[in-house]
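Hi L., both proteins are below.
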Amino acid sequence: MENPEKMLNDDIRGQLKGVLDGMVNPVTIEFFGTDGEELVAETKKFLTEIGEIAEKVAVSFNTLPQDQAKADELGIELVPGFALLDSQGNNPGIQFYGLPGGHEVNSFIYALMAVSGTKEDLPEAVLEEVRNFKQDINMKVFVTLSCPHCPGAVSKAHRLAMENPHIKAEMIDANLFPELSDKHNVSSVPKIVFNDGADLGGNQHIESFLNIMRTTQN
């Protein structure tokens, strides 16, 4: 009999375990939240269950403001939010703000697999160019959990971030952070905002990401 208190039912847990058993190296999720918020509690519960399912996923729960110094070190700016660290404790610039439920489970699982060592291959020319970027690039990918096109945009941004420590990519639940969404004129999703300026709409080809990223290097 299924435990009604679980967020993930037995079928979903079995499917996720089948995928996450393919992780190569351990991954640590560094979560940050504040006390007393329902969505923080839900996100903590979700991540706890992922940690139960996946042998190579460890979850570290941090509370603000007590752990503000650690949040600053990892570049966490919103709550609930979390970063993924690789087996060496390195921060590849992959962040999630909000509960990665709905369709965003796909980008979350993709990120876990990629950080564990099974990242998607990219053309060598793309890798060389991205690795040579010298100026900081921040990509905010605004999503809604019901959007089927959003995970593709999130995963592209996260994949590029893994290739250069100057790049940070964030999944942001547009409905959860309305003030930030309004600031960046988010009227449809996915919307990718580069360095709080230029933006892309939709799940664009990776070359479209690169076209804007190049402009940040001038």
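That was the first. Here is the second:
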Amino acid sequence: HGTFSSTMGSYGALGSTEWGREFLAAAFARYDVVLGFDHPTLSVDPFANATDLLAALERLGWAHPPEIDAVAFSRGGLVFRSLVEQL
């Protein structure tokens, strides 16, 4: 999610339109896990947020390394970039 926002604030409205509900249904059918990651946007460095995200993903206990597709923008994009490039 972006600065000053949250997962619900950024993506919560998907359930209110037919297109959004179809998108969510397709995601839930295709993926083992669909998750949103809420992170502090100004008080914590994106790398620290990425470290927290990695810890959350590791707690899911994957049998094999996961294949991850991400939808991110703004600050969330910086967090995911830190995860991919630095962790």
